[in-house]
Predict the structure of 4-diphosphocytidyl-2-C-methyl-D-erythritol kinase.
Amino acid sequence: MDETVETARAKINLALHVTGRRADGYHLIESLVAFTELGDVLTFRTSNHDSLSISGVFAGELAANEDNLVFKARSSLRRAAEKRGLPAPRTAIGLEKNLPVASGIGGGSADAAACLRGLMRLWDLSPDDIDLPAIAAGLGADVPMCLVSRPLIARGAGENITAIDTLPVLPVVLVNPLEAVATADVFAELTNKNNDVLDLPDISGDLNGIVAALAATRNDLQLPAAHIAPVVDEVLAALGACHPLLARMSGSGATCFGIFHDPVEARLAGELLRDRYPHWWVRSTMTGGTPGATGDG
Ligand SMILES: C[C@@](CO)(OP(=O)(O)O)[C@H](O)COP(=O)(O)OP(=O)(O)OC[C@H]1O[C@@H](n2ccc(N)nc2=O)[C@H](O)[C@@H]1O
Ligand SMILES: Nc1ncnc2c1ncn2[C@@H]1O[C@H](COP(=O)(O)OP(=O)(O)O)[C@@H](O)[C@H]1O
């Protein structure tokens, strides 16, 4: 194989409880996460030299240099492969940047994870030879969950992952006011570091059952994020005016999501919000459910 493609799906923290703090300052979280159909797109091609070229709506927000998480992922995987005497040939990577940057939907982490998945295939590496979860965790707290890229609960600083077998597809609208919010600032603004653990009741039911279960959970970063970026409350109010089943912020913000009854309602809400707030980023999409689980009923 000399060319391959990967989608770096956006994540949504459907619930995010911050339950403590590690000695190194990282926070302990418990988060129910789903991934959307929407994402950045990465292409990989063996080449005479390494390169990274960025296109797409948000290309201007990112440099194609060694600070880019895609660049870091390629370097980390190459180091691990070469340590074992395995091939890691020069590679040209294309990144189509469709997701807003520093927005709580993990675009950068998803890019890094997609880069690991794509290069494992292009370089013909086996998961038996490479400790991918460890490489992912070394790149950022969100990268291990993005490597899995299906419904899950993340614990620890994000690296301790349990796949969820029962989450149905959720029709959602994502709204980002195009104000970047730095994750570290939001964690620093959080006053109570020891909130209740995530105690999820049965989430194997229909959409209404899942929404009821989610209503009893929180995003503990929503309040501190809204202190830093008051526009978060505007976004939540704008979503609320479209009567979603639930509206909440994802991750450290500022992207918020609304869950809607069906894809048509989500699409109409997306159109309405785009009309009212043409300067915001608004997308209606679906989360990928667990294969086999349904949202009917
Ligand atoms: C809040 C979450 C929820 O999924 O997502 P985002 O809002 O970033 O998408 C994650 O915990 C973010 O993961 P990620 O963005 O990969 O974090 P990193 O790059 O590893 O860390 C950025 C900074 O956030 C803080 N941080 C991050 C994760 C964590 N569990 N505790 C922390 O305190 C630290 O100050 C760290 O220096
Ligand atoms: N490929 C990339 N895409 C997005 N952000 C990146 C990338 N590489 C590095 N970054 C940096 O990572 C930080 C987090 O970005 P991102 O993952 O989009 O947000 P969040 O962690 O809030 O979901 C940003 O400050 C950005 O400068």
Remarks:
- The first strand starts at residue 3 and ends at 21.
